[in-house]
């Protein structure tokens, strides 16, 4: 598109300046291609024309290859010390002009330009610091760690880049936000020694001056040091220890945003990376941090006030729908979830938006619109700054400047550009306001309930509760409970902001509890949870900011005592109420294993156990939610819970083996395996169930470990098994993995904790009782050496498939069942015992175990399945049961399992009132058992 005629004088003046600067070489300007490119540069950037006139050697290079490669930084050494400022400034001007050239001519996109500007700043910082460091070492020596000997490693300055420099998205004429730090205190070892603080402060000041000071050649980079701890009043350079202490005690919300983008841009990169990792918990909290929204609201309000005061509506950075709103939107969503989702800890804005989209925190359409707006705004911002190398973000009012900007963007006029700009800004403002306005979506609350709550503990009339739907006697009990709660120190000592959140949340909770089946119980459950999160205001913020989470919590608490207790004990589970994955497909066996193994990335045993417990809590909670919501059948849930236990045991086994190898060395050629019995072995693990485990090992005769404190194989593996049991039962801040029951090992409580493969096989062959072979039907290897697991399968098959006397087998099984029922069956007025009652789950299990033990010698396929549905299918395939009976028993099992899980979820005994479904299921089991001669009725 041809530029408007009003721009022609600008083009001609630029070409005249270049002809004069080039002198005898001005002929290069006469080529049509050259003239066309220079016309576009002249319209877009006075700065570029000025640089080309000052450095005429640059123009032929750009005309030759269009500036395809970055220009090398200058070489600074003591022999050209006086020239350092000029060399740096000329390099920055030349390289910036190359970036203008490629941007204006469409050779680079906005990402290339931002990356190039960042790379230029990095190069100037690194070049300048290296030269100054060499000068300081010559004058003062190197700083040595005060706690190390004189020959210890030198301590170096670390230059952290924050803001857009840290995010590798530096705009064309931006200042650079720097913070200086150093790893350890000490003193320099030169002829004129300095303490570390003084040494690095002087070095940092010299670096800022070398880059920032305006000379006849202009400036290299404007340096802003105000983001350091304590701002302008703080020391120029701080030790890492002082910085850590500052952020622990003084760190503010805006500093979390600033350090979110922190990157080492010069100096000791290794030390700087370690500090950034150390400060990660300051930036990204372990829990969902909806409290970050308050900080964002405060920062946005301050910026809005500045924009209004200075009439900056046309500021595309700070104004409504501007760059800052896109940055804030992405950063606050990262801060909210980044502590729990490492994929969101992204310094660069566009990848951050895409990560948020992939995590389903931003709808795909919104993410695409924000990325498009950001790219347009940053390109426009660069063009505003390229015009005269000015640090501006404001749209021009001058008509000629508007024409230049529009022409540079290939728009017909300013109005056409403005129409596109306004569309982008409107979309950004809409998305940003939606983020900040979430609290307005709170459910409507009866004003009397809200007034009653705020009047507590000294005022307020319990009659309001009755009017809200609570029964009279329960209303009095709830009133008393609420008054005690409000008088508790945790509530009385709340900060004003947290108390305001509590006052918004509690009336909603109370109003929603009235229709519950047991409202007093529901209120008590909710108060237990709220009491536990009062000190973790980020979770109170979650419930305040996210009405869907609040509604989900109320539904969960009123329907499931077990999940209510879990959430109260482990508030991290509140995250699941908002996690889109909790509503989607449940993880596969492989995904469960991978999630648990991720805990092994932590650095020490305590951290691994904590992370593993959190993972187990989160995933089991997700499975329980799916069960509670009827999104999957109970059989699927129990199978997934067993897989999750398998994965946790495998991780714990690896931890225990590491500990044993470290303490006692390894045993060459030895093998170890963990067997799961009972519901774990049958892949039908209940919610909150313990694990029935048996341990096997196999080692060469007289084997010993090769460590300094060697142990023979028997003791080595006994200690390994003890460690596994202890680690599974260790209580951490994130809870306990599992209670373990080891009574099913050979010889029971009197037997060794761990058995050799040979002794286990001999026991199963010669001494095991019938009931132990029944238990072996459901046993499987859950972790350990694959070869030993295969050997166990062979031992199991031999034990189960041997021919048996059917009559004796039947009498043994019926006798054992009668003994169990007499001791364990709780069927009575309270209801039918789903597990131990006549015709219940255990009767069905005994029936299948009887058929396997009786028929496995003739039908080896009966040995493969462990789970009840698969065993039923195998029995049918072997011709031992007709199709109708198999289908009916499968349905009976599903009924019992679903009712049993429902009881567990609400912390009720597994006793249910009989209805037609339960009666029919019991009759089916009884009929099938009787048909096989197993009369499990009461004796």
Largest sheet: 5 strands, mixed
What's the CATH H-level superfamily name of the largest domain? Beta Polymerase, domain 2
Helix content: 55-70%
Total helical elements: 40
* Overall domain count: 5
**CATH architect. name of the largest domain:** 2-Layer Sandwich
Distance between the termini: 99 Å
| Quaternary organisation of the protein chains | single chain
CATH T-level topology of the largest domain: Beta Polymerase, domain 2
Overall outline: elongated
Average the pLDDT over all residues and give the rounded result: 89
Low-confidence stretches: none
Annotation, overall tally of beta strands:
17
Measured by DSSP, the beta-strand proportion falls in 5-15%
CATH class annotation of the largest domain: Alpha Beta
Please tell me about this protein's structure.
There is one protein chain. With 939 residues, this protein is of the alpha/beta class. The protein has 5 domains: 66-283, 2-Layer Sandwich (Beta Polymerase, domain 2), CATH 3.30.460; 292-409, Four Helix Bundle (Hemerythrin (Met), subunit A); 437-578, Four Helix Bundle (Hemerythrin (Met), subunit A) (Up-down Bundle), CATH 1.20.120.1510; 595-800, Beta Polymerase, domain 2 (2-Layer Sandwich); 804-939, Nucleotidyltransferases  domain 2 (Four Helix Bundle (Hemerythrin (Met), subunit A)), CATH 1.20.120.330. It contains 40 helices and 17 strands. Strand 11 (731-732) and strand 12 (735-736) form a beta hairpin. Helix 24 (519-533) runs parallel beside helix 27 (561-569).
């Amino acid at each position: 598109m041809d530029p408007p005629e009003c721009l022609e004088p600008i083009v001609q003046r630029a070409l005249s300046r270049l002809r004069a600067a080039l002198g005898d070489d001005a002929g290069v300007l006469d080529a049509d291609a050259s003239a066309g490119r220079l016309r576009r540069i002249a319209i877009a950037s006075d700065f570029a024309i000025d640089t080309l006139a000052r450095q005429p050697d640059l123009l032929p290079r750009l005309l030759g290859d269009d500036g395809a490669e970055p220009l090398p930084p200058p070489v600074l050494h003591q022999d050209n010390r006086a020239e350092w400022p000029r060399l740096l400034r000329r390099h920055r001007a030349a390289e910036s002009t190359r970036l203008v050239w490629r941007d204006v001519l469409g050779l680079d996109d906005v990402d290339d330009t931002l990356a190039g500007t960042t790379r230029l700043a990095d190069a100037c910082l690194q070049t300048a610091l290296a030269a100054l460091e060499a000068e300081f070492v010559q004058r003062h020596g190197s700083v040595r760690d005060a706690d190390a000997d004189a020959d210890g490693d030198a301590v170096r300055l670390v230059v952290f880049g924050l803001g857009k420099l840290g995010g590798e998205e530096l705009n064309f004429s931006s200042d650079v936000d720097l913070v200086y730090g150093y790893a350890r205190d000490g003193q320099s070892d030169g002829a004129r020694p300095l303490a570390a603080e003084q040494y690095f402060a002087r070095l940092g000041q010299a670096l800022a001056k070398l880059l920032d000071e305006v000379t006849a050649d202009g400036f290299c980079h404007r340096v802003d040091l105000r983001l350091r701890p304590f701002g302008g009043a703080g020391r120029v350079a701080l030790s890492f220890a002082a910085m850590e202490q500052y952020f622990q005690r003084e760190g503010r919300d805006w500093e979390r945003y600033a350090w979110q983008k922190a990157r080492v841009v010069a100096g000791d990169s290794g030390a700087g990376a370690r500090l950034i990792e150390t400060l990660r918990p300051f930036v990204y909290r372990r829990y969902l941090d909806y409290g970050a929204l308050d900080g964002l609201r405060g920062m946005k309000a301050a910026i809005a006030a500045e924009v209004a005061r200075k009439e900056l509506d046309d500021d595309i950075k700070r104004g409504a729908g501007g760059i800052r709103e896109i940055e804030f939107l992405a950063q606050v969503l990262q801060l909210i979830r980044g502590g729990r989702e490492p994929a969101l800890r992204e310094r660069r804005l566009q990848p951050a938006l895409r990560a948020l989209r992939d995590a389903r925190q931003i709808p795909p359409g919104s993410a695409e619109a924000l990325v498009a707006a950001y790219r347009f705004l940053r390109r426009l911002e660069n063009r505003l700054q390229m015009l005269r190398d000015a640090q501006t973000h404001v749209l021009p009012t001058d008509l000629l400047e508007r024409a230049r900007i529009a022409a540079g963007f290939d728009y017909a006029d300013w109005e056409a550009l403005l129409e596109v700009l306004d569309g982008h800004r409107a979309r950004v403002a809409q998305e940003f306001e939606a983020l900040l306005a979430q609290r307005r979506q709170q459910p409507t609350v009866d004003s009397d309930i809200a007034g009653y709550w705020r009047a507590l503990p000294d005022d307020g009339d319990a009659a309001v509760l009755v009017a809200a739907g609570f029964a009279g006697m329960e209303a009095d009990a709830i009133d008393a409970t609420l008054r005690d709660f409000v008088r508790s120190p945790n509530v009385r000592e709340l900060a004003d902001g947290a108390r305001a959140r509590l006052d918004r949340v509690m009336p909603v909770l109370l109003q929603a509890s009235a229709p519950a089946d047991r409202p007093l119980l529901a209120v008590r459950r909710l108060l237990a949870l709220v009491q536990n999160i009062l000190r973790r205001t980020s979770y109170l913020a979650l419930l305040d900011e996210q009405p869907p989470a609040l509604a989900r919590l109320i539904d969960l608490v009123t329907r499931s005592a077990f999940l209510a207790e879990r959430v109260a004990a482990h508030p991290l589970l509140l995250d699941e109420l908002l996690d889109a994955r909790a509503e989607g497909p449940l993880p596969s066996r492989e995904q469960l294993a991978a999630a648990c193994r991720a805990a092994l990335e932590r650095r020490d045993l305590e951290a691994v156990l904590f992370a593993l417990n959190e993972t187990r809590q989160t995933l089991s909670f997700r499975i329980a939610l799916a069960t509670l919501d009827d999104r999957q059948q109970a059989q699927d849930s129990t199978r997934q819970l067993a897989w999750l236990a398998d994965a946790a045991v495998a991780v714990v086994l690896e931890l225990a083996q590491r500990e044993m190898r470290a303490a006692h060395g390894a045993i060459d050629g030895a093998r170890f395996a963990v067997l799961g019995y009972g519901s774990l072995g049958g892949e039908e693990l209940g919610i909150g169930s313990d694990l029935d485990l048996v341990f096997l090992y196999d080692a060469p005769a007289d084997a010993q470990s090769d460590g300094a404190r060697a142990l023979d194989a028997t003791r080595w593996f006994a200690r390994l098994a003890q460690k596994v049991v202890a680690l599974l039962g260790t209580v951490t801040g994130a809870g306990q993995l599992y209670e373990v029951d080891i009574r099913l090992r050979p010889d029971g409580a009197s037997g060794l904790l761990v058995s050799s493969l040979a002794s286990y096989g001999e026991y199963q062959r010669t001494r095991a009782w019938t009931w132990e072979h029944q238990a072996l039907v459901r046993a499987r290897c859950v972790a350990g050496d694959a070869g030993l697991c295969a050997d166990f399968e062979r031992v199991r098959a031999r034990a189960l498939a041997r021919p048996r006397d059917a009559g004796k087998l039947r009498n043994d099984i019926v006798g054992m069942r009668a003994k169990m029922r007499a001791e364990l069956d709780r069927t009575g007025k309270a209801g039918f015992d789903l597990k131990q009652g006549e015709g219940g789950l255990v009767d069905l299990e005994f029936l299948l175990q009887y058929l396997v033990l009786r028929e496995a010698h003739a039908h080896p396929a009966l040995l493969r399945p462990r789970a009840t549905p698969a065993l039923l299918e195998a029995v049918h395939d072997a011709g031992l049961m007709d199709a109708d009976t198999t289908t009916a028993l499968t349905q009976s099992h599903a009924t019992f399992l679903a009712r049993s899980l429902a009881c567990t979820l609400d912390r009720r005994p597994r006793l249910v009132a009989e209805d037609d479904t339960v009666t029919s299921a019991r009759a089916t089991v009884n009929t099938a058992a009787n048909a096989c001669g197993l009369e499990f009725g009461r004796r």
